[in-house]
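Put briefly, the fold is written as integer tokens. The lines below illustrate.
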Amino acid sequence: MGVLAVFGIDNAALSLVVNLLILFVVVIWLALVYWTYADARRRMTDPMLIGCAAAASLFPFVGTLVYLIVRPPEYLDDIRERELEMQAAEARLHSAGFQLCPYCDAEVERDFLRCPACMRKLKDPCPNCARPLDPAWRICPYCEAEVEPAEEPRSSRRRSEEPSAY
């Protein structure tokens, strides 16, 4: 009964060592395929990209190496955690009396009439007590003076309403 001779090796002990090395390399390759698939699932949401990463890793060792180069730098859980931390920080700022300017994202307090960073108008003062008023308010909550609603921006239909000179 002949022994399976890999690479033409007839020595039984040497053939056993070569067979074990080949088995070791195949097991490492399959482990890399699984690792690539599992890592892609933790870093990507698109199933097509996950499948492409796993398929690329089927090319022994080179596919996994290419995946390591082009994979996203962060885990999805880390991204979600960072977003939650940012939302919590914004909620803490909002509850502490600080807000962000809608134009330049600088920190402004609730009673600011203008943003100190970009100088844009944030609120109108009450004509009676000069306290800041929200544009949606119809009455000043501090002195109970009635406030005229803010003018709505006029549409730019001027060109279509003017008769043409042609």
Remarks:
- Helices lie at 12-43, 47-56, 62-70, 76-95, 158-161.
